[in-house]
Amino acid sequence: MSMTDLKSMTIEELKDWMVQIGEKPFRAKQVYSWMHEHLAASWEEMTNIPKSLKEKTGDYPITALKVVDEQVSALDGTRKYLFGLEDGNVIESVLMRYRHGNSVCISSQVGCRMGCRFCASTLGGLTRNLKPSEMLDQIYRIQSITGERVSNVVVMGTGEPLDNYENLLRFIHILTGEGGLNISQRNVTVSTCGLVPRMYDLAEEQLQITLALSLHAPNDEKRRELMPVARRYSMQEILDACRNYFDKTGRRITFEYSLVAGVNDSEEDARELTEKIRGMNCHVNLIPVNPIKERSYVRSTRAAVDNFKNKLEKCGINVTIRREMGSDIDGACGQLRKSYIDRTESEK
Q1: Three-state secondary structure call for residue 129
Q2: Rounded to 5 degrees, what are φ and ψ at 258?
Q3: Do the bridges between strand 79-84 and strand 109-111 make them parallel or antiparallel, or are there none, so unpaired?
Protein backbone atom coordinates (compact mmCIF):
# COMPACT_ATOMS: atom_id res chain seq x y z
CA MET A 1 0.00 0.00 0.00
CA SER A 2 1.34 3.43 -0.97
CA MET A 3 1.39 5.66 2.08
CA THR A 4 0.01 8.46 -0.08
CA ASP A 5 -3.14 6.39 -0.65
CA LEU A 6 -5.05 8.36 1.94
CA LYS A 7 -8.27 6.33 1.79
CA SER A 8 -6.32 3.19 2.74
CA MET A 9 -4.90 4.82 5.89
CA THR A 10 -6.15 4.27 9.41
CA ILE A 11 -7.07 7.37 11.39
CA GLU A 12 -3.77 7.17 13.31
CA GLU A 13 -1.76 6.92 10.09
CA LEU A 14 -3.64 9.89 8.69
CA LYS A 15 -2.83 11.92 11.82
CA ASP A 16 0.88 11.15 11.39
CA TRP A 17 0.67 12.16 7.74
CA MET A 18 -0.99 15.46 8.62
CA VAL A 19 1.83 16.27 11.03
CA GLN A 20 4.40 15.39 8.36
CA ILE A 21 2.92 17.94 5.95
CA GLY A 22 2.75 20.60 8.67
CA GLU A 23 -0.94 20.35 9.59
CA LYS A 24 -2.69 19.92 12.93
CA PRO A 25 -3.59 16.30 13.82
CA PHE A 26 -7.30 17.17 14.20
CA ARG A 27 -7.49 17.70 10.44
CA ALA A 28 -7.08 13.93 10.07
CA LYS A 29 -10.43 13.26 11.73
CA GLN A 30 -12.13 15.75 9.43
CA VAL A 31 -10.62 14.28 6.27
CA TYR A 32 -11.22 10.71 7.46
CA SER A 33 -14.90 11.51 8.07
CA TRP A 34 -15.24 13.08 4.62
CA MET A 35 -13.74 10.00 2.94
CA HIS A 36 -15.38 7.21 4.91
CA GLU A 37 -18.59 8.68 6.34
CA HIS A 38 -19.62 11.35 3.83
CA LEU A 39 -18.07 9.38 0.92
CA ALA A 40 -16.35 12.39 -0.65
CA ALA A 41 -14.79 11.61 -4.02
CA SER A 42 -12.49 14.65 -4.09
CA TRP A 43 -10.91 17.36 -1.95
CA GLU A 44 -13.31 19.87 -3.47
CA GLU A 45 -16.24 18.18 -1.72
CA MET A 46 -14.68 18.71 1.72
CA THR A 47 -16.28 22.03 2.59
CA ASN A 48 -14.71 22.59 6.04
CA ILE A 49 -11.12 21.87 4.93
CA PRO A 50 -9.06 25.08 4.52
CA LYS A 51 -7.78 26.09 1.11
CA SER A 52 -4.19 25.98 2.37
CA LEU A 53 -4.52 22.26 3.15
CA LYS A 54 -6.18 21.54 -0.19
CA GLU A 55 -3.27 23.28 -1.94
CA LYS A 56 -0.80 21.00 -0.15
CA THR A 57 -2.70 17.88 -1.20
CA GLY A 58 -2.77 18.50 -4.93
CA ASP A 59 -0.48 15.52 -5.52
CA TYR A 60 -2.58 13.24 -3.31
CA PRO A 61 -5.93 12.56 -5.00
CA ILE A 62 -8.68 10.75 -3.15
CA THR A 63 -9.31 7.27 -4.57
CA ALA A 64 -12.68 7.38 -6.32
CA LEU A 65 -13.82 4.76 -8.82
CA LYS A 66 -15.47 5.74 -12.10
CA VAL A 67 -18.57 3.98 -13.45
CA VAL A 68 -17.69 2.41 -16.81
CA ASP A 69 -20.89 0.39 -17.20
CA GLU A 70 -24.04 -0.33 -15.23
CA GLN A 71 -26.62 -3.04 -15.74
CA VAL A 72 -29.97 -3.06 -13.95
CA SER A 73 -32.11 -6.18 -13.71
CA ALA A 74 -35.68 -5.69 -14.84
CA LEU A 75 -36.63 -8.68 -12.67
CA ASP A 76 -35.49 -7.68 -9.19
CA GLY A 77 -33.61 -4.36 -9.38
CA THR A 78 -30.18 -5.94 -8.92
CA ARG A 79 -27.50 -3.54 -10.17
CA LYS A 80 -24.16 -4.63 -11.55
CA TYR A 81 -21.41 -2.04 -11.86
CA LEU A 82 -18.20 -2.03 -13.85
CA PHE A 83 -15.79 0.40 -12.20
CA GLY A 84 -12.69 1.90 -13.78
CA LEU A 85 -9.46 2.15 -11.74
CA GLU A 86 -6.82 4.85 -12.08
CA ASP A 87 -4.47 2.51 -13.97
CA GLY A 88 -7.08 1.65 -16.62
CA ASN A 89 -8.12 -1.72 -15.17
CA VAL A 90 -11.77 -2.49 -14.50
CA ILE A 91 -13.52 -4.38 -11.69
CA GLU A 92 -17.12 -5.30 -11.01
CA SER A 93 -19.47 -5.04 -8.05
CA VAL A 94 -23.10 -5.99 -7.48
CA LEU A 95 -25.87 -4.36 -5.43
CA MET A 96 -28.57 -6.81 -4.34
CA ARG A 97 -31.71 -5.61 -2.60
CA TYR A 98 -33.28 -7.85 0.03
CA ARG A 99 -36.05 -7.29 2.54
CA HIS A 100 -33.50 -7.24 5.34
CA GLY A 101 -31.39 -4.56 3.60
CA ASN A 102 -29.01 -3.87 0.74
CA SER A 103 -26.06 -6.17 0.15
CA VAL A 104 -23.03 -5.31 -1.98
CA CYS A 105 -20.74 -7.97 -3.41
CA ILE A 106 -17.29 -6.55 -4.10
CA SER A 107 -14.12 -7.67 -5.89
CA SER A 108 -10.80 -8.04 -4.05
CA GLN A 109 -8.46 -8.40 -7.04
CA VAL A 110 -8.23 -7.43 -10.69
CA GLY A 111 -8.67 -10.90 -12.14
CA CYS A 112 -7.86 -14.08 -10.22
CA ARG A 113 -5.18 -16.77 -10.33
CA MET A 114 -7.11 -19.56 -8.63
CA GLY A 115 -8.38 -21.03 -11.92
CA CYS A 116 -11.74 -22.44 -10.74
CA ARG A 117 -13.21 -24.11 -13.82
CA PHE A 118 -16.73 -22.70 -13.60
CA CYS A 119 -15.77 -19.06 -12.93
CA ALA A 120 -15.33 -16.31 -15.53
CA SER A 121 -13.17 -14.28 -13.12
CA THR A 122 -10.17 -16.53 -13.65
CA LEU A 123 -10.11 -16.64 -17.45
CA GLY A 124 -7.55 -13.85 -17.84
CA GLY A 125 -5.49 -14.71 -14.76
CA LEU A 126 -4.48 -12.26 -12.03
CA THR A 127 -3.52 -8.69 -12.93
CA ARG A 128 -3.03 -7.24 -9.44
CA ASN A 129 -4.40 -6.94 -5.93
CA LEU A 130 -6.86 -4.20 -5.07
CA LYS A 131 -5.85 -1.63 -2.49
CA PRO A 132 -8.07 -1.25 0.60
CA SER A 133 -9.29 2.07 -0.81
CA GLU A 134 -10.37 0.39 -4.06
CA MET A 135 -12.27 -2.26 -2.13
CA LEU A 136 -13.94 0.33 0.08
CA ASP A 137 -14.85 2.65 -2.76
CA GLN A 138 -16.89 -0.01 -4.53
CA ILE A 139 -19.26 0.22 -1.58
CA TYR A 140 -18.96 3.99 -1.27
CA ARG A 141 -19.72 4.68 -4.95
CA ILE A 142 -22.73 2.36 -4.95
CA GLN A 143 -24.12 3.98 -1.82
CA SER A 144 -23.49 7.44 -3.29
CA ILE A 145 -25.07 6.55 -6.65
CA THR A 146 -28.22 4.98 -5.18
CA GLY A 147 -28.56 7.12 -2.07
CA GLU A 148 -29.35 3.90 -0.19
CA ARG A 149 -27.62 2.52 2.89
CA VAL A 150 -25.54 -0.62 2.44
CA SER A 151 -26.00 -2.95 5.41
CA ASN A 152 -24.23 -6.12 4.27
CA VAL A 153 -20.95 -6.63 2.41
CA VAL A 154 -19.83 -9.82 0.71
CA VAL A 155 -16.23 -10.16 -0.51
CA MET A 156 -17.13 -12.74 -3.12
CA GLY A 157 -16.69 -10.99 -6.46
CA THR A 158 -13.64 -11.25 -8.70
CA GLY A 159 -10.51 -12.45 -6.91
CA GLU A 160 -9.51 -14.61 -3.95
CA PRO A 161 -9.72 -12.37 -0.86
CA LEU A 162 -7.20 -14.39 1.18
CA ASP A 163 -4.71 -14.03 -1.68
CA ASN A 164 -4.84 -10.27 -0.88
CA TYR A 165 -4.70 -10.86 2.85
CA GLU A 166 -3.14 -7.73 4.35
CA ASN A 167 -5.23 -5.38 2.23
CA LEU A 168 -8.34 -7.40 3.10
CA LEU A 169 -7.73 -6.99 6.84
CA ARG A 170 -7.18 -3.26 6.50
CA PHE A 171 -10.36 -2.99 4.43
CA ILE A 172 -12.40 -4.84 7.08
CA HIS A 173 -11.09 -2.71 9.94
CA ILE A 174 -11.81 0.57 8.14
CA LEU A 175 -15.24 -0.59 6.95
CA THR A 176 -16.35 -1.80 10.39
CA GLY A 177 -14.58 0.75 12.56
CA GLU A 178 -15.79 4.06 13.93
CA GLY A 179 -15.61 7.14 11.76
CA GLY A 180 -16.87 5.43 8.62
CA LEU A 181 -19.85 3.34 7.56
CA ASN A 182 -19.40 1.35 10.79
CA ILE A 183 -20.97 -1.79 9.31
CA SER A 184 -21.11 -4.62 11.83
CA GLN A 185 -18.47 -7.31 11.32
CA ARG A 186 -21.29 -9.83 11.60
CA ASN A 187 -22.68 -8.34 8.38
CA VAL A 188 -19.44 -8.97 6.47
CA THR A 189 -18.81 -12.25 4.63
CA VAL A 190 -15.45 -13.24 3.15
CA SER A 191 -15.32 -16.08 0.64
CA THR A 192 -12.27 -18.26 0.03
CA CYS A 193 -11.53 -21.21 -2.22
CA GLY A 194 -9.49 -22.67 0.62
CA LEU A 195 -6.06 -21.11 1.22
CA VAL A 196 -5.48 -23.12 4.37
CA PRO A 197 -2.58 -21.19 5.97
CA ARG A 198 -4.46 -17.91 5.58
CA MET A 199 -7.62 -19.47 7.02
CA TYR A 200 -5.65 -20.22 10.19
CA ASP A 201 -4.22 -16.68 10.17
CA LEU A 202 -7.72 -15.22 9.81
CA ALA A 203 -8.97 -17.25 12.77
CA GLU A 204 -6.29 -15.64 14.95
CA GLU A 205 -7.57 -12.16 14.07
CA GLN A 206 -10.66 -12.85 16.22
CA LEU A 207 -12.96 -11.06 13.79
CA GLN A 208 -16.70 -11.64 13.86
CA ILE A 209 -17.05 -11.91 10.09
CA THR A 210 -18.58 -14.93 8.35
CA LEU A 211 -16.13 -17.18 6.52
CA ALA A 212 -17.59 -18.79 3.40
CA LEU A 213 -15.68 -21.69 1.89
CA SER A 214 -16.10 -22.47 -1.80
CA LEU A 215 -16.36 -26.24 -1.46
CA HIS A 216 -18.19 -27.30 -4.65
CA ALA A 217 -17.41 -31.03 -4.38
CA PRO A 218 -17.83 -33.92 -1.92
CA ASN A 219 -14.32 -35.38 -2.35
CA ASP A 220 -10.77 -34.52 -3.38
CA GLU A 221 -10.99 -36.11 -6.81
CA LYS A 222 -13.98 -34.06 -7.96
CA ARG A 223 -12.73 -30.93 -6.24
CA ARG A 224 -9.41 -31.14 -8.07
CA GLU A 225 -11.32 -31.35 -11.34
CA LEU A 226 -13.23 -28.15 -10.56
CA MET A 227 -10.68 -26.20 -8.50
CA PRO A 228 -6.88 -26.27 -9.02
CA VAL A 229 -6.32 -25.12 -5.42
CA ALA A 230 -7.48 -28.59 -4.34
CA ARG A 231 -4.17 -29.97 -5.62
CA ARG A 232 -2.45 -28.02 -2.84
CA TYR A 233 -4.85 -28.59 0.05
CA SER A 234 -6.96 -31.66 0.67
CA MET A 235 -10.56 -31.51 1.83
CA GLN A 236 -9.46 -32.86 5.19
CA GLU A 237 -7.00 -29.98 5.60
CA ILE A 238 -9.61 -27.44 4.52
CA LEU A 239 -12.34 -28.80 6.80
CA ASP A 240 -9.90 -28.87 9.72
CA ALA A 241 -9.16 -25.19 9.05
CA CYS A 242 -12.92 -24.50 9.05
CA ARG A 243 -13.36 -26.27 12.38
CA ASN A 244 -10.49 -24.23 13.79
CA TYR A 245 -12.12 -21.01 12.56
CA PHE A 246 -15.35 -21.87 14.36
CA ASP A 247 -13.47 -22.88 17.52
CA LYS A 248 -11.55 -19.58 17.59
CA THR A 249 -14.37 -17.21 16.61
CA GLY A 250 -17.66 -18.97 17.36
CA ARG A 251 -18.81 -18.02 13.86
CA ARG A 252 -20.70 -20.62 11.85
CA ILE A 253 -19.03 -21.64 8.58
CA THR A 254 -20.85 -21.29 5.27
CA PHE A 255 -20.09 -23.84 2.55
CA GLU A 256 -20.70 -22.59 -0.99
CA TYR A 257 -21.58 -25.48 -3.31
CA SER A 258 -22.09 -24.76 -7.03
CA LEU A 259 -24.16 -27.53 -8.56
CA VAL A 260 -22.97 -28.65 -12.01
CA ALA A 261 -25.15 -31.11 -13.92
CA GLY A 262 -23.66 -34.57 -14.06
CA VAL A 263 -20.53 -33.52 -12.16
CA ASN A 264 -21.34 -32.99 -8.48
CA ASP A 265 -25.13 -33.12 -8.11
CA SER A 266 -25.94 -36.82 -7.68
CA GLU A 267 -27.48 -38.53 -4.65
CA GLU A 268 -24.11 -40.16 -4.03
CA ASP A 269 -22.46 -36.72 -4.02
CA ALA A 270 -25.01 -35.52 -1.46
CA ARG A 271 -24.42 -38.58 0.71
CA GLU A 272 -20.65 -38.19 0.57
CA LEU A 273 -20.83 -34.48 1.35
CA THR A 274 -23.04 -35.22 4.35
CA GLU A 275 -20.47 -37.66 5.72
CA LYS A 276 -17.75 -35.02 5.41
CA ILE A 277 -19.49 -32.14 7.20
CA ARG A 278 -21.98 -33.83 9.55
CA GLY A 279 -21.55 -32.53 13.09
CA MET A 280 -19.98 -29.23 12.01
CA ASN A 281 -21.64 -25.95 12.91
CA CYS A 282 -22.22 -24.96 9.31
CA HIS A 283 -24.63 -23.86 6.65
CA VAL A 284 -24.61 -25.09 3.03
CA ASN A 285 -25.52 -22.63 0.30
CA LEU A 286 -26.43 -24.47 -2.91
CA ILE A 287 -25.77 -22.46 -6.08
CA PRO A 288 -27.05 -23.57 -9.50
CA VAL A 289 -23.94 -22.81 -11.57
CA ASN A 290 -24.00 -19.85 -13.98
CA PRO A 291 -22.97 -21.20 -17.40
CA ILE A 292 -20.17 -19.32 -19.19
CA LYS A 293 -19.42 -19.76 -22.87
CA GLU A 294 -15.74 -20.64 -22.28
CA ARG A 295 -16.70 -23.75 -20.29
CA SER A 296 -18.91 -26.74 -21.02
CA TYR A 297 -20.54 -26.90 -17.59
CA VAL A 298 -24.32 -26.65 -17.40
CA ARG A 299 -26.50 -26.05 -14.37
CA SER A 300 -28.32 -28.81 -12.56
CA THR A 301 -32.05 -29.21 -13.09
CA ARG A 302 -34.37 -27.82 -10.46
CA ALA A 303 -35.35 -31.37 -9.52
CA ALA A 304 -31.69 -32.30 -8.97
CA VAL A 305 -31.13 -29.19 -6.85
CA ASP A 306 -34.19 -29.89 -4.70
CA ASN A 307 -33.23 -33.52 -4.31
CA PHE A 308 -29.70 -32.59 -3.24
CA LYS A 309 -31.10 -30.15 -0.69
CA ASN A 310 -33.53 -32.72 0.71
CA LYS A 311 -30.78 -35.32 1.14
CA LEU A 312 -28.70 -32.93 3.23
CA GLU A 313 -31.64 -31.69 5.29
CA LYS A 314 -32.69 -35.23 6.20
CA CYS A 315 -29.27 -35.61 7.82
CA GLY A 316 -29.74 -32.48 9.91
CA ILE A 317 -27.63 -30.11 7.81
CA ASN A 318 -28.81 -26.52 7.42
CA VAL A 319 -29.24 -25.84 3.69
CA THR A 320 -30.51 -23.04 1.47
CA ILE A 321 -30.66 -22.63 -2.30
CA ARG A 322 -29.20 -19.29 -3.29
CA ARG A 323 -31.86 -17.00 -4.63
CA GLU A 324 -31.01 -15.97 -8.18
CA MET A 325 -30.46 -12.23 -8.42
CA GLY A 326 -30.06 -10.37 -11.70
CA SER A 327 -30.41 -13.45 -13.88
CA ASP A 328 -31.27 -11.27 -16.89
CA ILE A 329 -27.94 -9.39 -16.76
CA ASP A 330 -24.27 -10.50 -16.71
CA GLY A 331 -24.81 -12.12 -13.34
CA ALA A 332 -21.93 -14.55 -12.84
CA CYS A 333 -18.67 -13.42 -11.23
CA GLY A 334 -16.44 -11.90 -13.86
CA GLN A 335 -18.95 -11.93 -16.74
CA LEU A 336 -19.43 -8.18 -17.05
CA ARG A 337 -15.69 -7.49 -16.84
CA LYS A 338 -14.93 -10.28 -19.33
CA SER A 339 -17.50 -9.04 -21.85
CA TYR A 340 -16.15 -5.47 -21.52
CA ILE A 341 -12.54 -6.60 -22.09
CA ASP A 342 -13.56 -8.74 -25.07
CA ARG A 343 -15.47 -5.81 -26.55
CA THR A 344 -12.66 -3.28 -26.13
CA GLU A 345 -10.09 -5.74 -27.53
CA SER A 346 -12.23 -6.31 -30.63
CA GLU A 347 -12.50 -2.55 -31.19
CA LYS A 348 -8.74 -2.00 -31.31
Answers
A1: strand
A2: -80, 120
A3: unpaired
CA 30 to each of CA 3, 7, 37, 176, 205: distance values in angstroms, whole numbers, following the listed order? 18, 13, 10, 18, 29
d(CA 299, CA 252): 27
Q: Which of 333, 274, 263 is nearest to 304 (CA)?
A: 263
Q: Which of 41, 38, 48, 43 is nearest to 58 (CA)?
A: 43
Handedness of CA 18, 22, 26, 27 (dihedral sign): negative
How many beta carbons lie within 10 A of that of residue 206, not counting itself? 9
Smallest Cα–Cα separation from 69: which of 341, 297, 342, 340?
340
Phi/psi of residue 5, each to 5°? -85, 85
CA dihedral sign of residues 232, 236, 242, 247: negative
Length of the chain, in residues: 348
| Ordered per-residue pLDDT tens for the chain, 348 residues | 455 899 999 999 999 999 999 999 999 999 999 999 999 999 999 999 999 999 998 889 899 999 999 999 888 889 999 999 999 999 999 999 988 899 999 999 999 999 888 787 777 899 999 999 999 999 999 999 999 999 999 999 999 999 999 999 999 999 999 999 999 999 999 999 999 999 999 999 999 999 999 999 999 999 999 999 999 999 999 999 999 999 999 999 999 999 999 999 999 999 999 999 999 999 999 998 876 555 667 889 999 999 999 999 999 999 999 877 666 666 555 556 556 565 555 555
User: Looking at the annotation, which residues are catalytic?
Assistant: 92, 333
